[in-house]
Write a structure and sequence with these properties.
Shape: elongated
Largest sheet: 4 strands, mixed
Number of strands: 7
Helix content: 40-55%
Distance between the termini: 18 Å
Number of helices: 16
Oligomer: single chain
Order of helices and strands: HEEEEEEHHHHHEHHHHHHHHHH
Radius of gyration: 23 Å
Strand order of the largest sheet: 3-4-5-7
Strand content: 5-15%
Length: 431
């Protein structure tokens, strides 16, 4: 565990020592118990009140071995959940996606259908499902848990959570090591841009439209704030891709008056591809401005030594530059001018050239778009070279077509999903 991830634990321990109640939260592994007033236990986790004026902390069940004190009995009801969540976290960390998915998918379904997708415990489950789907190339299916994570963190002070943060689980898999899982400023997941390469994603997109999740997404987008607007924009993007919507006509997208950074970025991405000529040009200008801001950030050497905190707070992260490059490149490919199309390919190739080590899935998507563009331009040799590079980066993510199904194995219904039984000690538990 890194120093930054230890700080919340240590802080809570220090604050808890000042509390007068004798309730304790016992951690997983060999951490010292936290003394503090346990004021609530629920499916979201354990809420601990520390010293007066210090507020509360919400501890995810994945981090809790037991609760002692007045709420020990109601907390014991969540022991099977705590055991299952701890196993999910451990399996995600080591990249054991098959075993993770067998436990996480039915639990995710139960949380969604029960309206309990909130707090650090649920966020871990949504992250696990997201990573499992990404790891086996079902990138379109990863959209739904990414949007659910956006709702879970929207308007929430996640620094008061213990056991999960927007950076996600510390994983060994280099493909998904670079975070965050969800960017709290934009409410976007770096790995799930609203950009698709039709020949590869068509089965996955069609399958997505037939899921209960898609029906749910369409039914409640208006009641989820900015995260709901982003979800509606993603819905628009998926349906436009499935319908093979051409560029040219002016489009009126949700969130027209929103100043939220995530809403604006997704709108620009869609307008740059599907809008009128005027809309496409304006969207590309906005996206290129984001790219220029990133170049300024790099010139400031991560902005750490400059002391200009205002500037550093207004430049995009590296994954967002990759999104902007892809969107601009894809937009230029729909233009009639051959020179603009070539510029589009160049923009797309920035992503694998500069981000393949950190965001291989984005690099592969960019290569797919560039490959498709070159084939349409009659450059079969260049397209073949890009196809070989896709497979070299990752054979699974680089497969010719996405799988059309969600889980690796059939998921039991939420009511019948087996829950691991508690065992005497962490050391004896299978991981």
């Amino acid at each position: 565990m890194t120093r930054s991830r230890l700080i919340p634990w240590l802080a809570l321990g220090a604050l808890g020592a000042c509390a007068t109640a004798d309730a304790q939260v016992l951690w997983r592994a060999q951490r010292p118990p936290v003394v503090g007033e346990v004021v609530n236990v629920s499916s979201e986790g354990v809420t601990v009140k520390a010293a007066e004026g210090e507020g509360t902390r919400l501890i995810g069940w994945q981090s809790v071995r037991a609760v002692e004190g007045p709420l020990a009995t109601p907390a014991a009801r969540f022991t099977p959940d705590a055991d299952a969540l701890w196993r999910i976290e451990q399996r995600v960390a080591r990249g054991d996606y098959r075993l993770t998915e067998m436990v996480a998918e039915p639990r995710y379904r139960a949380m969604v259908e029960g309206g309990r997708l909130a707090g650090p415990s649920a966020a871990l489950v949504a992250e696990a499902v997201l990573r499992c789907r990404l790891a086996r190339g079902f990138t379109t299916g990863a959209i739904i848990p990414a949007l659910d994570l956006a709702r879970a963190v929207q308007g929430v002070d996640t620094s008061a959570w213990i056991g999960w943060s927007p950076r996600g689980v510390e994983v060994q898999d280099p493909r998904w090591r670079e975070g965050p899982v969800i960017d709290t400023a934009t409410l976007l997941c770096p790995w799930t841009p609203p950009i698709f390469e039709r020949s590869q994603a068509s089965r996955g997109l069609v399958a997505l439209l037939e899921t209960k999740d898609w029906v749910r997404l369409r039914g409640d987008v208006g009641s989820a704030g900015e995260a709901g607007v982003i979800a509606e924009l993603y819905r628009w993007a998926v349906e436009a891709e499935v319908q093979d919507r051409p560029a040219g006509a002016e489009i009126d997208l949700p969130g027209r008056d929103s100043e939220h950074p995530g809403v604006k970025v997704v709108r620009w991405v869609l307008e740059s591809r599907y809008g009128s000529e005027t809309q496409r040009r304006a969207a590309r200008t906005a996206l290129l401005q984001k790219i220029n801001e990133e170049i300024r950030r790099q010139a400031l050497d991560e902005s750490a030594a400059s002391g200009d905190s205002e500037l550093s707070a207004n430049v995009p992260p590296r994954w967002l530059e990759a999104w902007c490059r892809m969107a601009v490149g894809r937009s230029l490919l729909v233009e009639a001018d051959a020179a603009l199309k070539r510029q589009g390919v160049i923009q797309l190739l920035h992503v694998p050239a500069r981000f393949a080590d950190r965001y291989p899935s984005l690099a592969i998507l960019s290569l797919r778009l560039a490959e498709s563009g070159l084939r349409e331009m009659g450059d079969a040799t260049g397209a073949g070279s890009l196809r070989a590079e896709i497979v070299r980066i990752d054979p699974v993510l680089g497969r010719a077509e996405e799988p059309a199904s969600a889980p690796m194995t059939p998921s039991p219904s939420p009511s019948s999903a087996p829950m691991p039984q508690p065992v005497p000690s962490d050391a004896a538990k299978p991981r």
